[in-house]
Amino acid sequence: MDTVLAFENTLTAQDLALLRKAGEATHAAGIRMYLVGGSVRDALLGRQVLDLDLVTEAPAEEVARILTQPLNAQVRARSQFGTLKLHAEGRTLDLATSRTERYARPGALPSVQPGPIEADLWRRDFSVNAMAVALWPDNFGTLLDPTGGQGDVQRGVIRALHSESFQDDATRILRAVRYATRLDFRIERRTLGWLKRDLRYLDAISPPRLRRELERLFEEVDAPGCLRLAHRLGVLSAVHPALGHPGLRKAIQAARRMAPATQGLLVLLTYGCAATEIDSLSDRLGLTNEQRKVVKDTQSVKALEPHLTYPRLLPHEFADAVNGMAPEAVLTASLLASDRFAQSRLLRFVDSWSRVVPALTGRDLERLGVPPGPLMGTLLDELRDARIDSRIRSKQAEIKYVKRWLRQVQ
Ligand code: ATP
């Protein structure tokens, strides 16, 4: 018996109406339209369907033309694989032509040919992502599941579709980690064997693709969970040996205490790396200039640590030493520094010292008789330092300090 999805509670009424209209309009032109991929997986799980990924066996351009009038749709973007983004009724639809793929060599982008919908499903990463739902009248909601994805959704299993899947495209290794964590699924036994066997194929993935896939992992709600699994499976050290450092487990645990953010997780992972490995790691991950700076700052804060613990270093001197470093770098060091005293001072810097400003402004100083010019900046810095050191605690005390300063310079 065919499974028919009702999309109750998984699609909004507007999206459901939009899909029905799209299915009808293409059907009238003799074309079968399907909802595919993660949307079907999420619908089967009773989760809200966020993306509307549509596939037909006809050229996407032709389908876009057919939908223009009934959906009042406009093409917004075209990709190198002939997929389109259509804007319709306030919603974005991803439109693709079903295709087969061939990988000339591991990690290369595949060469793509139009092909039947079943072949399109078989080229996908995992069975749970390899299902389609018919959208034309009479069959609306009927599941097409050539690879057994529905059973795997029910069993909670991530299963690759053939033994060379990770060799063809090793980004699927990171995808497996992501889905297993997000859905709380286990990676099927044979798939796990292939994944571990083929970790070295990650070397074939270009830095920009690797970065994109890692960023997607960092963006997951349970990014620390993804990292823990990736670490356990040896994925992180396969990405780059520098990510096999002994402090990694502690760093991943600390990630739970950090607000989720790509930059923050990146520095947590790299904190324990040797300084000499940072450039090669940054190249391998294809980091942006901004990301490179944060990772470098992390190493600089780490290098400062022994000096930060010098007992007579005043709070403002400490703050000066770390000032200008990326906040994520300082926060990471506050979580991971080996010395507790340095940790607590770094945390004080993040939580309060980095935000300290005097109560008096430049205008206030002028009114008190301070001549405009560089001395005013120096005086404001002195006030901030005195505040950080708790030598001054109120506006009144600041005014007293300025008056004394004026008496000394006049
Ligand atoms: P998410 O919920 O993370 O967005 P998704 O399943 O929509 O998940 P996408 O990365 O948007 O994921 O990909 C859409 C679909 O394209 C996937 O469901 C999968 O079928 C297929 N796909 C994506 N990347 C790959 C890949 N590297 N190899 C094979 N199939 C892939």
* C-alpha Rg (nearest Å): 28 Å
Helical residue percent band: 40-55%
Enumerate how many helices there are, as a single number: 21
The tally of beta strands, per DSSP, is 11
**What count of domains describes the coordinates?**
4
CATH architecture of the largest domain: 2-Layer Sandwich
CATH superfamily of the largest domain: Beta Polymerase, domain 2
**Biggest sheet character:** 7 strands, mixed
Strand portion, in percent? 5-15%
> Spans of 5+ residues with little confidence (pLDDT < 50)?
none
Spell out the key features of this protein.
single chain; 410 residues; alpha+beta; Beta Polymerase, domain 2; cca-adding enzyme, domain 2; 4 domains; 7-stranded mixed sheet; two-stranded antiparallel ribbon; 21 helices; elongated; binds adenosine-5'-triphosphate
